[in-house]
Protein backbone atom coordinates (compact mmCIF):
# COMPACT_ATOMS: atom_id res chain seq x y z
CA UNK A 1 0.00 0.00 0.00
CA UNK A 2 1.27 3.46 -0.86
CA UNK A 3 2.15 5.86 1.94
CA UNK A 4 0.18 9.06 2.45
CA UNK A 5 3.21 11.08 1.40
CA UNK A 6 3.45 9.18 -1.86
CA UNK A 7 -0.22 9.64 -2.64
CA UNK A 8 0.01 13.36 -2.00
CA UNK A 9 3.24 14.09 -3.82
CA UNK A 10 3.83 11.56 -6.59
CA UNK A 11 0.81 11.19 -8.81
CA UNK A 12 2.61 12.30 -11.98
CA UNK A 13 5.19 10.34 -13.97
CA UNK A 14 8.52 12.22 -14.13
CA UNK A 15 9.06 11.09 -17.72
CA UNK A 16 5.73 11.51 -19.51
CA UNK A 17 3.72 13.59 -17.05
CA UNK A 18 0.78 11.20 -16.99
CA UNK A 19 -1.08 10.44 -13.77
CA UNK A 20 -2.02 6.82 -14.53
CA UNK A 21 0.37 5.40 -11.93
CA UNK A 22 0.20 2.07 -10.15
CA UNK A 23 2.21 0.49 -7.30
CA UNK A 24 4.96 -1.78 -8.61
CA UNK A 25 6.96 -2.98 -5.61
CA UNK A 26 7.93 -2.01 -2.07
CA UNK A 27 10.95 -3.07 -0.05
CA UNK A 28 12.08 -2.10 3.44
CA UNK A 29 13.69 1.11 2.15
CA UNK A 30 11.24 2.64 -0.32
CA UNK A 31 8.36 2.28 -2.76
CA UNK A 32 8.40 1.90 -6.54
CA UNK A 33 5.65 3.07 -8.88
CA UNK A 34 5.08 2.23 -12.54
CA UNK A 35 3.60 4.55 -15.13
CA UNK A 36 0.96 2.81 -17.22
CA UNK A 37 1.65 5.13 -20.16
CA UNK A 38 5.43 5.07 -20.72
CA UNK A 39 6.21 2.11 -18.40
CA UNK A 40 8.84 4.00 -16.39
CA UNK A 41 9.34 2.56 -12.91
CA UNK A 42 10.32 5.27 -10.46
CA UNK A 43 10.87 5.97 -6.78
CA UNK A 44 8.61 8.66 -5.29
CA UNK A 45 10.42 11.85 -4.31
CA UNK A 46 9.73 11.33 -0.62
CA UNK A 47 12.31 8.51 -0.72
CA UNK A 48 15.02 10.37 -2.67
CA UNK A 49 18.36 11.02 -1.02
CA UNK A 50 19.50 14.58 -0.41
CA UNK A 51 22.18 16.04 -2.68
CA UNK A 52 24.70 15.63 0.11
CA UNK A 53 23.79 11.98 0.68
CA UNK A 54 23.85 11.29 -3.03
CA UNK A 55 27.28 12.85 -3.57
CA UNK A 56 28.67 10.94 -0.57
CA UNK A 57 27.71 7.72 -2.38
CA UNK A 58 29.34 8.87 -5.61
CA UNK A 59 32.52 9.85 -3.78
CA UNK A 60 33.01 6.17 -2.92
CA UNK A 61 33.35 5.23 -6.60
CA UNK A 62 36.89 4.45 -7.70
CA UNK A 63 36.96 4.61 -11.49
CA UNK A 64 40.37 5.25 -12.98
CA UNK A 65 41.53 5.70 -16.55
CA UNK A 66 44.39 3.31 -15.71
CA UNK A 67 41.93 0.52 -14.90
CA UNK A 68 41.75 -1.72 -17.98
CA UNK A 69 38.66 -3.45 -16.63
CA UNK A 70 36.81 -0.16 -16.33
CA UNK A 71 37.84 0.77 -19.86
CA UNK A 72 36.47 -2.54 -21.10
CA UNK A 73 33.20 -1.75 -19.33
CA UNK A 74 33.03 1.67 -21.01
CA UNK A 75 33.84 0.12 -24.38
CA UNK A 76 30.25 -1.11 -24.43
CA UNK A 77 29.39 2.53 -25.12
CA UNK A 78 32.57 3.58 -26.90
CA UNK A 79 32.52 0.86 -29.57
CA UNK A 80 28.99 1.37 -30.97
CA UNK A 81 29.39 5.16 -30.97
CA UNK A 82 32.72 5.08 -32.82
CA UNK A 83 31.25 2.62 -35.31
CA UNK A 84 28.72 5.29 -36.30
CA UNK A 85 30.49 8.61 -35.66
CA UNK A 86 33.94 9.58 -36.93
CA UNK A 87 36.47 12.11 -35.64
CA UNK A 88 36.83 15.06 -35.49
CA UNK A 89 33.19 14.97 -34.36
CA UNK A 90 32.34 16.87 -31.18
CA UNK A 91 30.97 14.95 -28.21
CA UNK A 92 29.74 15.53 -24.69
CA UNK A 93 30.07 13.13 -21.78
CA UNK A 94 27.10 14.02 -19.59
CA UNK A 95 27.45 12.79 -16.01
CA UNK A 96 31.16 12.10 -16.26
CA UNK A 97 31.74 11.62 -12.53
CA UNK A 98 35.02 12.52 -10.82
CA UNK A 99 37.04 10.85 -13.58
CA UNK A 100 35.89 11.44 -17.17
CA UNK A 101 37.43 8.23 -18.48
CA UNK A 102 35.01 7.78 -21.38
CA UNK A 103 35.73 11.32 -22.59
CA UNK A 104 39.44 10.51 -22.39
CA UNK A 105 38.90 7.43 -24.55
CA UNK A 106 37.09 9.47 -27.19
CA UNK A 107 39.74 12.21 -27.06
CA UNK A 108 42.47 9.62 -27.55
CA UNK A 109 40.61 8.47 -30.67
CA UNK A 110 40.63 11.99 -32.13
CA UNK A 111 37.26 13.35 -31.02
CA UNK A 112 36.75 16.78 -29.47
CA UNK A 113 35.11 16.30 -26.07
CA UNK A 114 33.33 18.35 -23.43
CA UNK A 115 32.26 17.04 -20.04
CA UNK A 116 29.53 17.88 -17.57
CA UNK A 117 28.61 16.57 -14.14
CA UNK A 118 26.44 18.33 -11.59
CA UNK A 119 28.86 17.42 -8.79
CA UNK A 120 32.28 17.05 -10.41
CA UNK A 121 32.28 19.15 -13.59
CA UNK A 122 29.47 21.62 -13.09
CA UNK A 123 30.05 23.86 -16.09
CA UNK A 124 26.58 24.86 -17.29
CA UNK A 125 28.02 26.56 -20.38
CA UNK A 126 28.60 23.21 -22.10
CA UNK A 127 24.90 22.30 -21.85
CA UNK A 128 23.65 25.71 -22.98
CA UNK A 129 23.55 25.87 -26.81
CA UNK A 130 23.20 29.65 -26.75
CA UNK A 131 26.51 29.92 -24.94
CA UNK A 132 28.43 27.16 -26.69
CA UNK A 133 27.22 28.29 -30.10
CA UNK A 134 27.52 24.74 -31.36
CA UNK A 135 25.70 21.42 -31.41
CA UNK A 136 27.14 18.05 -30.44
CA UNK A 137 27.51 15.20 -32.89
CA UNK A 138 27.04 12.75 -30.03
CA UNK A 139 26.33 12.74 -26.31
CA UNK A 140 26.95 9.87 -23.90
CA UNK A 141 25.24 9.24 -20.56
CA UNK A 142 26.80 6.20 -18.94
CA UNK A 143 25.06 4.94 -15.80
CA UNK A 144 23.30 8.30 -15.44
CA UNK A 145 19.60 8.13 -16.29
CA UNK A 146 18.79 5.82 -13.38
CA UNK A 147 19.83 8.69 -11.06
CA UNK A 148 17.55 11.33 -12.60
CA UNK A 149 14.61 12.70 -10.62
CA UNK A 150 13.34 14.59 -13.69
CA UNK A 151 14.38 12.36 -16.61
CA UNK A 152 12.13 14.07 -19.15
CA UNK A 153 13.68 17.49 -18.58
CA UNK A 154 17.22 16.15 -18.83
CA UNK A 155 16.71 13.90 -21.85
CA UNK A 156 14.81 16.55 -23.79
CA UNK A 157 17.60 19.04 -23.08
CA UNK A 158 20.23 16.62 -24.33
CA UNK A 159 18.29 16.00 -27.53
CA UNK A 160 18.14 19.75 -28.12
CA UNK A 161 21.93 19.91 -27.80
CA UNK A 162 22.41 17.38 -30.61
CA UNK A 163 23.00 18.36 -34.20
CA UNK A 164 20.50 16.91 -36.73
CA UNK A 165 21.35 13.23 -37.11
CA UNK A 166 23.28 13.31 -33.82
CA UNK A 167 23.47 10.36 -31.46
CA UNK A 168 22.49 10.11 -27.80
CA UNK A 169 24.06 7.05 -26.20
CA UNK A 170 22.56 5.85 -22.92
CA UNK A 171 23.89 3.05 -20.75
CA UNK A 172 21.55 1.73 -18.07
CA UNK A 173 20.21 -1.63 -16.95
CA UNK A 174 16.71 -2.38 -18.23
CA UNK A 175 13.65 -3.40 -16.25
CA UNK A 176 12.46 -6.86 -17.17
CA UNK A 177 9.46 -8.22 -15.26
CA UNK A 178 8.14 -7.68 -11.76
CA UNK A 179 9.51 -10.92 -10.31
CA UNK A 180 13.00 -10.14 -11.55
CA UNK A 181 12.66 -6.58 -10.25
CA UNK A 182 12.09 -7.77 -6.68
CA UNK A 183 15.56 -9.30 -6.45
CA UNK A 184 17.33 -6.96 -8.89
CA UNK A 185 20.71 -5.69 -7.69
CA UNK A 186 20.04 -2.36 -9.41
CA UNK A 187 17.40 -1.31 -6.87
CA UNK A 188 19.78 -1.87 -3.95
CA UNK A 189 21.59 1.33 -4.86
CA UNK A 190 19.50 4.05 -3.25
CA UNK A 191 20.80 6.66 -5.69
CA UNK A 192 18.92 4.75 -8.42
CA UNK A 193 15.45 6.25 -8.70
CA UNK A 194 14.37 5.91 -12.37
CA UNK A 195 14.23 2.52 -14.07
CA UNK A 196 13.71 2.24 -17.82
CA UNK A 197 12.56 -0.71 -19.86
CA UNK A 198 12.85 -1.35 -23.58
CA UNK A 199 9.23 -0.24 -23.89
CA UNK A 200 10.02 3.03 -22.11
CA UNK A 201 12.78 3.91 -24.56
CA UNK A 202 10.61 2.92 -27.52
CA UNK A 203 7.89 5.24 -26.21
CA UNK A 204 10.39 8.08 -25.71
CA UNK A 205 11.87 7.63 -29.19
CA UNK A 206 8.43 7.72 -30.78
CA UNK A 207 7.46 10.85 -28.86
CA UNK A 208 10.63 12.67 -29.94
CA UNK A 209 10.84 11.37 -33.51
CA UNK A 210 14.10 9.49 -32.91
CA UNK A 211 15.40 6.18 -34.16
CA UNK A 212 16.21 3.79 -31.32
CA UNK A 213 18.63 0.89 -31.30
CA UNK A 214 19.42 -1.49 -28.45
CA UNK A 215 23.01 -2.72 -28.29
CA UNK A 216 23.64 -5.64 -25.99
CA UNK A 217 21.88 -5.70 -22.63
CA UNK A 218 22.34 -2.13 -21.47
CA UNK A 219 23.22 0.33 -24.26
CA UNK A 220 20.55 2.37 -26.01
CA UNK A 221 21.26 4.60 -29.01
CA UNK A 222 18.83 7.38 -29.90
CA UNK A 223 19.48 9.08 -33.24
CA UNK A 224 17.97 12.50 -33.77
CA UNK A 225 16.21 13.00 -37.07
CA UNK A 226 18.04 14.97 -39.75
CA UNK A 227 15.27 17.56 -39.92
UniProtKB/TrEMBL annotation:
<dbReference type="GO" id="GO:0008168">
    <property type="term" value="F:methyltransferase activity"/>
</dbReference>
<protein>
    <submittedName>
        <fullName>Bifunctional 3-demethylubiquinone-9 3-methyltransferase/ 2-octaprenyl-6-hydroxy phenol methylase</fullName>
    </submittedName>
</protein>
<dbReference type="GO" id="GO:0032259">
    <property type="term" value="P:methylation"/>
</dbReference>
<keyword id="KW-0830">Ubiquinone</keyword>
<keyword id="KW-0489">Methyltransferase</keyword>
<keyword id="KW-0808">Transferase</keyword>
<dbReference type="Pfam" id="PF13489">
    <property type="entry name" value="Methyltransf_23"/>
</dbReference>
<dbReference type="InterPro" id="IPR029063">
    <property type="entry name" value="SAM-dependent_MTases_sf"/>
</dbReference>
Amino acid sequence: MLSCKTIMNDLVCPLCGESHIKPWWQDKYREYLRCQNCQLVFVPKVWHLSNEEEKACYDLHENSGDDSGYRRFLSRMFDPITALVRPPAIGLEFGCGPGPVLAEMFAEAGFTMKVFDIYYANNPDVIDPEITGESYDFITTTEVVEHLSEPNQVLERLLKLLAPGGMLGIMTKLVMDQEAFKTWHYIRDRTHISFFSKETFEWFAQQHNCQVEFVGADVILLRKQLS
